[in-house]
Amino acid sequence: MPDILFEVKNKIATITLNRPETRNAFSDEMLLGWASALRESQARDDVNVVVLTGVGKAFCSGGDLSTMGKDETPNQFKEYLLTRVHPVARAVAALDKPYICAVNGAATGAGMDMTLYADIRFAAASARFAESYVNVGLAPGDGGAFLLPRLVGLTKALELLWTGDLFSAEEAERLGIVSKVLPDDQLMAHTYAFAERLANGPSLAIRMTKKAVYDGLRSDLFQALESVSSHMGVLSFTHDQIEAVKAFREKRKPVFEGR
């Protein structure tokens, strides 16, 4: 079986980490396929939403400690991060469609970092999280030091990063890392119900909203207002916006076509 699975159905692309025997630790095949699946999802007109999850009892344990560092120089390890791990992050950054992570089990080290790249995270009640790099003498190498403070604040982020402590899905929800905790057997049903709602919505408006939110994090209020005025100008002449207004007047549910 391949280390990563990719499927498109009903406008939803699903990327599934498939190395359960290693707790879905990274392999070259997984990382290359993951980045490729994200790029394909961005390019395909039949994909409006992307869902990420894992097979087995763990979501992802990050780097494979059984192979990490063997016969590697510092420069070779840096090159591995830049050419294998970080392309996934760059592919996420280029994805303007909703990216939802269903955390089915433990997400530790780089596995937790990979959940943080998602726009929204839902977690199984059995899921656990840890920025566990420090436990093996490493610093967060896949974006955790950048992303986590933006979710939980500086002080809490440093606590989690410095201790490497494992914490529950309920604590992750309290901290704002996950949006909702579900019973294990309801996680995927909830995730797909949410994804389907977005997939069948006005996809251009949803994508421009995502762009406005992330651009706003990198700009000031006046730049954000200038940018969103352009988005609104474009959206006001789309089929979906015209259809929504027409449906409102006719007291019916709009049918969105993503154009």
Write a structural description.
The protein is globular. The protein contains ten helices and ten strands. It has helices at residues 28-43, 74-93, 110-116, 144-152, 154-163, 169-175, 187-199, 203-217, 221-235, 239-250, and strands at residues 4-9, 12-17, 49-54, 58-60, 99-103, 106-108, 120-124, 128-130, 167-168, 180-182. The strands form two sheets. It has a six-stranded mixed sheet, sandwiched between helices. With 259 residues, it is α/β, with parallel strands linked by helices. Helix 1 links the parallel strand 2 and strand 3 (49-54). It folds into two domains: 4-199, 2-enoyl-CoA Hydratase, Chain A, domain 1 (Alpha-Beta Complex); 203-250, Lyase 2-enoyl-coa Hydratase, Chain  A, domain 2, CATH 1.10.12.
Question: How would you summarize what this structure contains?
Answer:
This protein has 259 residues and is α/β, with parallel strands linked by helices. The protein has 10 helices and 10 strands.
Task: Give the topology.
Blueprint: E1 4-9, E2 12-17, H1 28-43, E3 49-54, E4 58-60, H2 74-93, E5 99-103, E6 106-108, H3 110-116, E7 120-124, E8 128-130, H4 144-152, H5 154-163, E9 167-168, H6 169-175, E10 180-182, H7 187-199, H8 203-217, H9 221-235, H10 239-250
Parallel strand pairs: 2-3, 3-5, 4-6, 5-7, 6-8, 7-10
Antiparallel strand pairs: 1-2, 8-9
> Which stretches of 5+ consecutive residues score pLDDT under 50?
none
User: Radius of gyration in whole Å, from Cα?
Assistant: 19 Å
How would a crystallographer describe the biggest sheet? 6 strands, mixed
User: Under the CATH scheme, which architecture of the largest domain would be assigned?
Assistant: Alpha-Beta Complex
Superfamily (CATH H level) name of the largest domain? 2-enoyl-CoA Hydratase, Chain A, domain 1
